[in-house]
Amino acid sequence: MEDATNYEAEAIAYQEKIEKETIEGLSLISKHLAKGKRYFMLNLQFIETDQDVYRQITVPADITFFDLHIIIQDCFNWMDYHLFDFQYVYRKKLKMITERFDEDLFDDTARNKALEAHEVRLDAVFPQTMAVKYSYDYGDGWELLVTLMSEATGYGEVSLDAPVCNEGAGAVPPEDVGGWGGFEDFLIAINDKTDSEHEHMSAWGRGQGFEDKFEHKKINSRMAKWKTHKRIHEKNMREG
What we know:
With 240 residues, this protein is α+β, with helices and mostly antiparallel strands. The chain is globular, with a radius of gyration of 18 Å.
C-alpha cells in the first residue's frame, strides 16, 4: 500500500510539472462555445527526450480515448502491438484510462482500477484537464504529452469526420526499435553506408514503415482510415 501511495504521489507531482512546462504560452480559445460540432486541436509531443518530435492534430471532441489511441497509432505509423494508457491529474488525484482486462492478468492496482478507454470521451476530460500523458509499449517506453491547444465549433466550412494532422516535425521512432537508445543506434546505422548494420537496419526500417521526415499527406491518408483500424483492433481482441 505504501509503494502504491508513493507511486501515485510521485506520478501526480511529475504530471503537474510537465503540464505546467508544456502548456505555458498556450491558450484555450473558449470554454463557452455555441452549440455545434466541437473539435479539439491537440499537440502530441514526445517527452523524456531532447529530440523535437511532435504532431498537431484536430479531432472531434466527442470521440473516446480508445479512438484517440488508434488515431495516434495511425499518425505515428505504429502497429498497435502493445499496451497503452492515458494518465492525468484531476483534483489532485491521478486518473488512468486504458483498455479493461481481467484483473488476474495484471498485478497492477492502477491498471485494474483504470477507467475504460472505450467509455471515456475526450470532452469529459478536456478542457477540465489541459494535458494528458499517453504511454505506449512499456518495453520501449514511449511517452507523449497530449496537450489541448484550442477548441472550435467548426473546421473551416466543412464538417470534419476524420482526424486531420495540421503540422509536425521530426521523425517518429519505428515500432519495436528499442526506445530512444535503440532509435539513435538505428539512425546511425541507416545514415552511414559504411556501418556493418546499414543494409539490415535499412531493410528493417522499411518493413516497419519508418518515415525519416514529417510526411503530411501520408499521415492524413492513414488517419482517414482510423475507423477501419479500430474495427480490426476490436476483432483481434475478441478473438485473442
